[in-house]
Specification:
The chain is mainly alpha-helical. Helices cover about 60% and strands about 10% of the residues.
C-alpha cells in the first residue's frame, strides 16, 4: 500500500508498449462497486476470494504489466500464479513512506481504523517475507519519483528506459 504499484506499472507498460492491468480495478470492473464497498459487505475474506479470481485470470494473459493489491501475496495460489506466469517486481517501501503517501486516502479499508502507521507496520511484517519470496526484482521506492523507479525496473528487466 502506497508503494506506487499502479503509477509505476502504468509507466513501465507505456515504455514497453504493453497493456496495463490493475487487479483492484479489475475487481471493481467485475463487481461494479469499489473495494471499500466489497470490504464492507463481504469482509476481507470475500474480497480475497474475488482477488484470487481476478489474479488467476489476469496472470493467464500474456504480454501485460500487472499491478496487484498489496495483500495479493497472502494467498499461496496467488503467489504461485504470479511467480510461475511472469516476472515479479517487489516495490519495497518503508512504513514511514507508505504512511506519508496514503495519509489522505479514504479508500483504504485495511487502515481505516486506528493508527495507519501502526497498521501498515503489522501488514508489512506479515507481507514482506512473502513479497521477497517470489520477487525476481526488488526496487526501493522511498523518496524516489515514479520515473526513476520505473527506469530501475526496466534496466533490471533488460529493457531500455527512455
Amino acid at each position: 500500500m502506497g508503494s506506487g504499484k499502479t503509477a509505476v506499472g502504468r509507466y513501465v507498460a507505456r515504455v514497453l508498449k504493453m497493456p496495463f492491468h490493475d487487479s483492484d480495478a479489475e475487481i471493481e470492473r467485475r463487481t461494479g462497486v469499489d473495494i471499500p464497498f466489497i470490504f464492507e459487505k463481504e469482509g476481507e475474506p470475500g474480497f480475497r476470494q474475488r482477488e484470487r479470481e481476478a489474479i488467476e485470470a489476469l496472470t493467464a494473459l500474456e504480454g501485460i504489466v500487472l499491478a496487484t493489491g498489496g495483500g495479493a501475496v497472502l494467498l499461496e495460489e496467488n503467489r504461485r500464479h504470479l511467480a510461475e506466469r511472469g516476472r515479479v517486481v517487489y516495490l519495497e517501501t518503508s512504513v514511514a513512506q507508505q504512511a506519508h503517501r496514503v495519509r489522505y486516502g479514504r479508500h483504504r479499508p485495511l487502515i481505516a481504523e486506528g493508527d495507519p502507521a501502526e497498521r501498515l507496520g503489522h501488514l508489512m511484517d506479515a507481507r514482506a517475507p512473502l513479497y521477497t519470496g517470489i520477487a525476481d526484482i526488488v526496487v526501493s521506492t522511498d523518496g524516489r519519483k515514479v520515473q526513476h523507479v520505473a527506469e530501475s525496473i526496466l534496466r533490471e528487466l533488460g529493457g531500455t528506459p527512455p
